[in-house]
Amino acid sequence: MRLTNRIGTWLACTALACGAPSPKAESPERDDPKPTSTATAPVAPVTPPPPSIVQLRTGRIDPLEIKEPVTGTVEAHAVRDGWELVVAQLPAGWRSTAFPNHEDHDLWGGNEQWLSQVIVHVAVPGAEAALNFALLNDSDPTPQQMKSSVGPPPPKDLLWLKRPVASAGRPLDVTLYTSISSRTPGSIVRVQLPAYDQLPSATDLDVRYTRALARYIQNLPDSPFRSFALTSLRRAARGTLPDVLEPERYGAWEDLMDLGTGRRSIDLALQTNSPLRARATERPTIPISKLKPPELNIPPYEQMLAQLGTAVPAEPLANTTPADFYFARSKNIEALFDVLDEVDSWVTPAVHVLDTKMQRLDLAARYQTQLGLRRTELSRRLGPELISELAVIGSDPFMRDGSDVTVLFRPRSDTALATALTATVQLTARPHGGIESKELRAAGHPVVFSWSPNRAVAQYKANVAGLLVVSNSLGAITRVIETSQGKHPALSSEPDFRYMLARDATVPADVLAFAGDRFMQSAVSPISRVLDARRQVAKSELLRVSHAALLFGWLHGNPATSGEQLVKSVVFSEAEMRHFDRERITFDSGSTRIGPRSAWGSPASLTPLIDLAAPTRVTTTEKSAYEAFVRRYQGVWAEALDPIALRVRIQHSADGTALGAKLRVVPIARDTDMMQMARIVGDGRVHPGPVASGFRLLLALAKDSELRRELSGQSRSMLGRTLAVDWIGPYAMVGVLDDPSLPNAMSRSDWVSQKPADDEEHHSKFEWVFDVPLYAALSIESSKGAALALAVLKERLGNFGTWTAATPYREQAITEIAVEGEHLSLFYALTDKLLIVTLSEKALHHLIDLVADGKPLPKGSTARDPDSAQWAFDLSGVPGGGLWTAMTWAIARELERADNDNFAQARQLFYGVPDTASDPQRYDAVALAYLGAIPVTQDGKRFTLTRAGVSDPVRGNDHAPVWPELPVPGSDLDRVLQTLQSVRSAISFDTEPSGGSTTPQRSLSVTLEAKRSSAPPGKGDD
């Protein structure tokens, strides 16, 4: 459904204002609202204090602890890898002891499939970090039994245990911890296994254990590791796992060409021996010159600049910046530190909250380490004495995977800054084994390369055109040098850059960022897209080595120490230690250079595209994939590439800090959501006025707006005729109050996560919405026309509900429409400024107060007003208030859904590299080196390994779930909301000079104003 249809229907139904008077319409009946003049504002009534916010149910559900132990029987055992491997059968009838309250799952009937999926962790004394588990209702047929007409053996409940070999054969006393669901606690069962020292060692236990482990992994949440492990275990089990693997995964090679990062399905497919992975080994035979980039129209920026008539501000650092690089300049070092402080305080936590993967990438630390630059209190104090101006530049946008980052410093003293940077790189490299340096030549220019043994530090430094240049990329610093030599065009001479500098020259900016046509063209070029696709395949191959190392630990109880050990094991092969292009992959777990690495980089930091050899030939698959990418890309961006300029400023005061940003995109491409938003509101403008309390969406409504036409069309569907809407004023708005009734209503929904009640009430799925303090309002050009329109509406829709006069408020008439059988009432009032429709009288009274007290309301405006907008979003509240509480609950519930992936990754680490469970620094280092990211809980904390398995230190696990008070202190959500005061974003679609073009040019302007109090933000455990 189109965006206009959705918004039009929404406003038409909630505003109840979709018609103008019929020529024969009668006057409104007595219970219809009359416009009330505000010349003499009625005295506000005394209102009762707001209700308190209800408390969500919190606490822990304790698992059922079975006092009496059960006795099992050891079936087989064997010694391997310094461990004794044991398989034991649980006794008949143990289920009635372990699951006394779960008869509803039909444990004892014929349908016991769910029991096979119950996760059981087993704690074995002396082997707490080893993977010990149970498989319930499990059948393990041998190859002969599978071929036999008799069929598989009856299912059993089996324990698979490891313990130190010194205890082999002795009695075992283990504890089972079952996990069923997050709302159903598990049980704790002690199992005693008598001595079995007379039992001979089994010769086939390795294969049986491999099959059992595969079935255990199959019950875990889907993940790339799971896909790899099931594929490898099939090979290790010698072809005896026909019922374990899902069908082969197929991915689209074209997806690897996309500029986005949503490639999880491709990651899953690339972990198996799928055709997708096999295509990477095709021989490249087609010249890359055969691949044609998107054909794009570049606006006439020089002519547009001449028509703009504004001087272009100087940007000296752009003279040394290659034209196809992005550019982010700080006017001084103090401004940069201010921006970085705000990013640390609330932008980074907000990004973590919005990124439901809840992983730590440590990008800032990674790039600072590579560059040999550290932010310290000393650098903050000395920076202004050493640096007058700086810029950060780079050639591609793939920061998560691995990109070149170059810093241009304009020093106040060459010698002093060079000395400071030398000391800084040595300090940065100290935890990474120290530093080595040598001099290179790049484009005939001297460059000093400094690196640590693990290459965490990789700094290239040169003096270029009066600047000190520091980069993590030899390719990037070479391009900068060649640009200073005139071998490549500089950004400062690019027409789009010059136009964007002049376009908002009066907007104050501590930091200016720009990405232009050449940068976009480079990102979508055949070389960039093919290299990036190959790099993604290479990353998947690096991750396969990581997954093999982790699976080795799962199988053997000890971590893999080298690539040679992996190859000798049953989980990997020599061929898999090479990339598709035959490049060698190394693996190490003992030094600081841990994890898989190759010329393509590591899972946490791939080699920048600019440092990879540009391909001259491509495969048939790559050619087809790029052509498909071009068709998709050109279908959306056929008119232009949309250069982007962002200006950021920071303002401090006694009350707190204000972060301001202005984004300009010129021009807007056709058939995008942005152009659709522009058509909805037309050319209308509105001055938003003060930031509204709560949440508010404000739309300008021009006379020719698509939304007005949509409202008129909705009147036909609702009333059977098309009626005029010329009585509607210049704007519409919808919002929610910052009021306790908002979270109180949400507390009855599944939008929140709380401890189940013993006698939990069952509500209608959406009934709680009717108590939300939601409002919609239309500004009024003609109150008389609006009143007559409401009369027509009542005449046509009178049977929709019971229309009655509610108790007036401040002499303002109010109408209630009660819908029988739905427990729903709508309230509306018509003032001389607004037609207001709400779900609650409280919200209606709030807006009536604004009108009656003469408080500033939005008003129609023009494009000449710099504070005008066509769309505006307001968010304002107080810590602990209704809106912030509701947001906390809703966000926490959404993040809860992502926990399974993170639990799975923590499980991989704990059992693959056991010492990560006891050493947080080791956990972080192994996670980054093996997986490229650190899995954390939804509150930003590290997972723990308990006797009951992997656990969230705040929220427990499915064995014993915990519902904490929200927000959790120190969490990212807490850090954002405890100081945030308000956020406003205003969107406008501005007319630009045509430049002689027959196609009108439009730009997108987005402003953001965010304010936070001066109270220091909370700190997480990172």
What would you say this structure looks like, in words?
There is one protein chain. The strands form eight sheets. The protein has a 20-stranded antiparallel beta sheet, with helices on both faces. Strands 2, 3, 4, 5, 6, 7, 8, 9 and 10 form a nine-stranded mixed beta sheet that branches. A three-stranded antiparallel beta sheet has the order 1-40-39, with no helix packed on it. The protein contains 27 helices and 42 strands. By secondary structure, the protein is an alpha+beta fold. Strand 9 (172-179) and strand 10 form a beta hairpin. It is globular, with a radius of gyration of 33 Å. Helices cover 30% and strands 24% of the residues.
Task: List strands and helices in order, with pairings.
Layout: H1 3-15, E1 59-60, E2 64-65, E3 70-71, E4 73-80, E5 83-89, H2 94-98, E6 119-123, E7 133-138, H3 143-147, E8 156-164, E9 172-179, E10 187-193, H4 205-218, H5 224-236, H6 264-270, H7 275-278, E11 286-287, H8 301-308, E12 326-330, H9 333-354, E13 359-360, H10 363-371, H11 377-386, E14 387-394, E15 406-411, H12 414-429, E16 436-442, E17 445-451, E18 458-464, E19 467-471, H13 474-484, H14 495-503, E20 511-515, H15 517-523, H16 526-556, H17 563-568, E21 586-588, E22 595-597, E23 617-618, H18 620-637, E24 644-653, E25 656-665, H19 673-681, E26 685-687, E27 694-700, H20 706-719, E28 728-736, H21 741-746, E29 774-780, H22 783-797, E30 802-809, E31 812-819, E32 824-830, E33 834-838, H23 841-852, E34 859-861, E35 871-876, H24 882-896, H25 899-912, H26 920-931, E36 934-935, E37 944-946, E38 949-951, E39 956-957, E40 960-963, H27 972-977, E41 980-992, E42 1001-1013
Parallel strand pairs: 2-10, 3-10
Antiparallel strand pairs: 1-40, 4-5, 5-8, 6-7, 6-9, 7-8, 9-10, 11-23, 12-14, 12-20, 13-36, 14-15, 15-19, 16-17, 17-18, 18-19, 20-24, 21-22, 24-25, 25-42, 26-34, 27-28, 27-35, 28-29, 29-33, 30-31, 31-32, 32-33, 35-41, 37-38, 39-40, 41-42
Helix pairs in contact: 1-20, 4-5, 5-6, 5-16, 8-14, 16-25
